[in-house]
Amino acid sequence: MPISNTPSSPTHNARADGRTATQLRPVSIQTGFTRYAEGSVLITLGHTQVLCNASVLDKVPPFLKGAGRGWVTAEYGMLPRSTHTRSDREAARGKQSGRTQEIQRLIGRSLRAVFDLEALGERTLHLDCDVIQADGGTRCASITGAWVAAALAVRRLMQDGSLTTNPVLDHVAAVSVGLVGETCLLDLDYTEDSSCGADVNVVMTGAGNLVEVQGTAEGQTFGRRTLNELLDLAEAGIAQLVEEQKRALGTL
Amino acid sequence: MPISNTPSSPTHNARADGRTATQLRPVSIQTGFTRYAEGSVLITLGHTQVLCNASVLDKVPPFLKGAGRGWVTAEYGMLPRSTHTRSDREAARGKQSGRTQEIQRLIGRSLRAVFDLEALGERTLHLDCDVIQADGGTRCASITGAWVAAALAVRRLMQDGSLTTNPVLDHVAAVSVGLVGETCLLDLDYTEDSSCGADVNVVMTGAGNLVEVQGTAEGQTFGRRTLNELLDLAEAGIAQLVEEQKRALGTL
Amino acid sequence: MPISNTPSSPTHNARADGRTATQLRPVSIQTGFTRYAEGSVLITLGHTQVLCNASVLDKVPPFLKGAGRGWVTAEYGMLPRSTHTRSDREAARGKQSGRTQEIQRLIGRSLRAVFDLEALGERTLHLDCDVIQADGGTRCASITGAWVAAALAVRRLMQDGSLTTNPVLDHVAAVSVGLVGETCLLDLDYTEDSSCGADVNVVMTGAGNLVEVQGTAEGQTFGRRTLNELLDLAEAGIAQLVEEQKRALGTL
Amino acid sequence: MPISNTPSSPTHNARADGRTATQLRPVSIQTGFTRYAEGSVLITLGHTQVLCNASVLDKVPPFLKGAGRGWVTAEYGMLPRSTHTRSDREAARGKQSGRTQEIQRLIGRSLRAVFDLEALGERTLHLDCDVIQADGGTRCASITGAWVAAALAVRRLMQDGSLTTNPVLDHVAAVSVGLVGETCLLDLDYTEDSSCGADVNVVMTGAGNLVEVQGTAEGQTFGRRTLNELLDLAEAGIAQLVEEQKRALGTL
Amino acid sequence: MPISNTPSSPTHNARADGRTATQLRPVSIQTGFTRYAEGSVLITLGHTQVLCNASVLDKVPPFLKGAGRGWVTAEYGMLPRSTHTRSDREAARGKQSGRTQEIQRLIGRSLRAVFDLEALGERTLHLDCDVIQADGGTRCASITGAWVAAALAVRRLMQDGSLTTNPVLDHVAAVSVGLVGETCLLDLDYTEDSSCGADVNVVMTGAGNLVEVQGTAEGQTFGRRTLNELLDLAEAGIAQLVEEQKRALGTL
Amino acid sequence: MPISNTPSSPTHNARADGRTATQLRPVSIQTGFTRYAEGSVLITLGHTQVLCNASVLDKVPPFLKGAGRGWVTAEYGMLPRSTHTRSDREAARGKQSGRTQEIQRLIGRSLRAVFDLEALGERTLHLDCDVIQADGGTRCASITGAWVAAALAVRRLMQDGSLTTNPVLDHVAAVSVGLVGETCLLDLDYTEDSSCGADVNVVMTGAGNLVEVQGTAEGQTFGRRTLNELLDLAEAGIAQLVEEQKRALGTL
Questions:
Q1: Which of the four pLDDT bands, split at 50, 70 and 90, describes residue C4?
Q2: CA contacts within 13 A on the Cβ side of C85
Q3: Cβ of E222 under 8 Å from any chain D Cβ?
Q4: What is the pTM assigned to this prediction?
């Protein structure tokens, strides 16, 4: 196992915003942000803000017609000026980028990993994750926020009697971790993300099991020991995010 | 001139939300809503909320290359669950609807009517109007909010010395008016808009001149006298919106 | 109310083609221009020529399935070399422009304003308005011509017994008016349209009620008094166009 | 060589419209049909009508930039209600069908076969062939009419001194022939085309050389002797069409 | 009939690869090239290689629903680096070129000419012709190879009892012929194809009847005598290709 | 750390094709598969076959113009009948799926991780990975094969003197691993992939460093210990694939 690419202990390094390497940015999960969606959440991580709306649709995709099961899916978008410089509007260009499609597939898979689709019944939970302001970590914030929006929509279905069994099996939340120079950092902002040598997006359940691990060398390949160190960081961060989800739902 | 289709005086009719026929919904124009755009405004009219971001781009469309003039343009979008029931995401469908294109062309024309494009210099002011929550009147709110976002971006260009002559010639604001039954109403919400017999979107300058008048019979044609009554209502409403614009900019 | 932007009396100004300010271009409405459409009309206004074909389709859009009502809709196109210089073919570019969509939506709404859709029964009247030669005013000519094509198609349905109640409630016709310098002009040709400060497309019924008013400042905002003067001009012009429609149908 | 599939002599068979097997439909080539195109022709063959407009563009496709040669190209379209029942508008569907692309490629190749592209200079002759009414044979009528429109545009360039050498080397014209039952027919109309066993579109020069031969078995394969009989028919028909081209241009 | 453009006897001219004018390139038809398709063939002609896969689908196009007949259709594609220099990937560009559509329509028509669609029953034979390496003649190779793939798929349907009557009425194969200088050549490779004055793609049945003849002047128009000489060459070449088809199927 | 989801030792479990849990499928890397690409490889893993062609293009993407550096990018496609049942052709549907885009982005990133783009100079290495036959693991096979194709293209550039410094810094190869029931398996085939509870695609350098880790729970979340066990398996498999790459290049 390679040793040379193992970073030294990062905990004493201060970051541009004063955080330690192992600190999340300030998190807030505001429920009821818009009034029409069955579940609506604005999740904020530092300067990153994502509006997550859950819609309950009384239909399922064609491949599930008549199967007695439901579906959970997601779409993702960035407002053109959520970013430091303006990006093209995907609707105007006439197609979603590969990045957008990759992210919305990831959000959908992550949510489905903790849903009992049979208990959901023949309906679709459609999550719309729209980035209002982007400072890194939007895909992870989308997952963490979308889970709360989905839980709110399910709560409403339980309350009005449409559902009798709760289809939500566990929490799911996500965070990015990365290697900047020799240091492992939790919850990268945009500047850190742009300059990191490698990053990993980690999606975990409330019980601490892995749902997705997406590690990518961005100019710096990394060894198994670094990966483990990064996953340790992510595990701790996700545990805090799950606490925030519970606080937002009042289930703490 | 037809008389039979002239509505009687509407001012004593109460509306679902308690307004009189001649009353605007509660308005708020929040500046600095996001941090990266050169001008950022969240405009709220009752339950309608539109985020208007102005970006300053150091380029102009091909037809203006080298002409020494600038350009002001706009794009419009609705978040899929801004509405009572979820709409398709235009980026996913792969094209903008006719309605979307019509609205963004209207916003652009309205702003350009009060801009001195030569004074703006060879740059583009790009306005992004994204509807967070839709309860009627989103195109008018977009115009009113976009003007403030544009004014903020221009103020920044003046402050950093990029501009020496202010290219903003006047305010521009917009409101919808409509005929519900025999009554002329100011500032229609979604329910009123859906049930009205005719509506007019009116765009006016601060000086009270017309920029756009878009009147449409929705099942009920209307006479010239009704049109004039509707325009009177709009004129009064727009004067109030211009006051709100001044308040938001601190120029009152 | 602003006075300074009120134009002086225009009636003594001669125009490039010798018309007075209040004169329409020579109009002709030729029926039966093509042989397969249920109603086919070539409408000519000066050099502007639009072929309006009405097709009767035994189906309705999805949102009307089983509702017992019909639908009237329109599509619009310009032949690539209908214009002074060649324009791109929209089919080759792979999409209709925002302008095209705006116009075809306008034509459809205008026609529906004078149709009893229940009397039409569960069928669609599809109007195709294709511009053979364009010298300004094509959207207005399309509306005026499409109404005649639709009336011809309805006449055929009445004659063969498919319809017993006439679903056509009134005439509908349209004309553009504009402010060139200080003068209000009726029925702008391309050169006038390009140089006007403001124009208004007006759609009215045979009874003289308004269906659509689309006024746009093109570099010159305008007061309420000017708007009224323009509408007076339009009203007179539309009355003549309705006469031409009657002449074409032999109902004068 | 197969004998069994050789048809017997067809000349005594009358057709639905009274023509003999070897007769063209009535032809007319009307020049100056629209006023803005550099060359404009309405060609009529029986009920088939195609508007052929030639535009002179002062540019060439990228692959010819700076090569000192010109280009001749074509686009083709059918008005939605040119046909017996309404077809979809290609601009609305967002793409041109395979058939449309095949036809416009054929028209372009056919014209280029009789053009000296060096003599044309660095400009493009763009032919727009739009079918006003379709009763079979539209691609052949497009070629025959487009050649006249192109010749008119060239004549104008010669007259204003833009060209000194005539780049038109010869006439080109086209006709369809087909096998209906055992009979070879010239110039198929829509009904004959739909029921024929095989058809051949033939493009020839004024000198009688072949430019394109597109023979297709539509349910009935055919022998070499039949092909020769069909080509004999086509050759005679094309000679007549070339006469009509000369008559239209006044060069007979 | 023109004489001057008739080429002299070509048989003594050697070609770049040493073939005589009347010689095919080395042919091989390898069956079972991939394992999942119901029929799979790699056809090689010199350096040209096309993978032809036949899929049996238990559905028919909408226009055949319930008609008790089947359908045979084809799609064609070139791998981006099948060619001497890389071409764009059509899936990435978002549309198939006009050439691609023309070719796949040709393959489909050619196959259907020798299929009894009623005997096929309500199913579709879908042929995918993908060019692995392109050195001219890919459309003809596709037809010749696709017929073998289709025959293999039908054989399997006969063997498992899904079909009792063989729907394959005859062989179909294709070859290109062309005029290079004054010489008629059989089976053009890419270099010959690029420099030829005219070429003809010929599709024939095993019985020697014509299915398609697509002759195109590429800079050099041609007389009837030349066409006949070219067709003689093609007829001989196709007879050899039919032998190869039989050899591949073991039916020789 | 969770213990319950740790699988027991898998090594004694036989798989459908007789492999042990830790065995790769038979691998072959055939160079020179097609003749025009600068590097051409057919990589086979069991029944999976991917054709990887490297093209050297003398241009770079716009964002690198004049930067003195090169680019390595990839495109991916599946032949429609590479799969057990036919899939739609992406070129015919008019867009690449989200999955396709995700994979081609992954291949590009993986290759770039071992390339010195400055040493490559201002040119692009374009890798086309086209799946001829798909039995699972196509994205991993694409990476492993594309690296060899790229190395062959670079070798040619070195040999002809276009490059003096070798821009290839290390090998890169990839393999999938997955959790089927309680067993960790190396190199999943299609059936295993469809039924696994979680899988990880692992991309590593020849030196054993990680380039990408993409782990996904497919119905079964997994603990850190399982992840480590899966990565151990992958590491061993990739070492063997690197051996095969060396064998193919003759550098072993």
A1: very low
A2: 2
A3: yes
A4: 0.92
